[in-house]
Amino acid sequence: MRKLKYHVATSVDGFIAHEDDTYGAFMQPRLIQDSEHVTDFVASLATYSAALMGRRTYEVGLKEGVTDPYTNLETYVFSRTMKESPNPRVKLVSEDAVGVVRRLKAQEGGDIYLSGGGAFAGLLFAEGLVDEVLLKMNPLILGAGIPLVSSLRQVVDLELKSTKVYGNGVVLLRYAVLPRPKA
């Protein structure tokens, strides 16, 4: 079974984007220029065979003319409001998101990259579909924005598997999602 990994940049206070869905604070030259964490992230994409994202995450690139953000991966955008995909390679999922993700996880292949989306991530955590969390904790406090996860109704327990501290202050935290206790 393929693993679903929520691999996301976050601020120290748990935000993955500004309130307007932009990422300006994360794009500061001190955080991205000649940064080993960017190189490591790009290399990690080779371990994935599919990418999942919600509409709001997808639209960030779309506003810049990027219709296929992960050309080497099967890409799925989950949206109840988009009517069609602007790129034939990008699959639009408007119904049964949980069922689609379950079917993808059951297929053969590399791991699945959950590419941001606080609300979408919350849905997948609630359904017990996320296997790992990789947080690129940036040395920033935003004070407000899009939360790492939203709308959770129960605690998700994590087990720390590894850490890596980069010279620019970014810390990569890798967690396994622990199974939920049986009721």
Structure report:
It comes from Corallococcus macrosporus DSM 14697. This is Deaminase reductase. GO terms for molecular function: 5-amino-6-(5-phosphoribosylamino)uracil reductase activity. The protein has 183 residues and is of the alpha/beta class. The protein has a single domain (4-177), classed as Dihydrofolate Reductase, subunit A. The chain contains 5 helices and 10 strands. It has helices at 29-32, 36-44, 55-62, 97-106, 118-126; strands at 4-11, 15-17, 48-54, 74-78, 90-93, 111-114, 132-138, 146-147, 158-165, 171-177. It has an 8-stranded mixed beta sheet with strand order 5-4-3-6-1-7-10-9. A two-stranded antiparallel ribbon has the order 2-8. α3 (55-62) links the parallel β3 (48-54) and β4 (74-78). The longest helix is centred in the middle third of the chain and has 10 residues, at 97-106. It starts with a strand and ends in a 6-residue tail after the last strand.
Q: Which key terms come to mind for this protein?
A:
alpha/beta; Dihydrofolate Reductase, subunit A; two-stranded antiparallel sheet; 5 helices; Deaminase reductase; DHFR-like_dom_sf; Riboflavin_Biosynth_HTPR; RibDG_C
Secondary structure elements and pairings:
Elements: E1 4-11, E2 15-17, H1 29-32, H2 36-44, E3 48-54, H3 55-62, E4 74-78, E5 90-93, H4 97-106, E6 111-114, H5 118-126, E7 132-138, E8 146-147, E9 158-165, E10 171-177
Parallel strand pairs: 1-6, 1-7, 3-4, 3-6, 4-5
Antiparallel strand pairs: 2-8, 7-10, 9-10
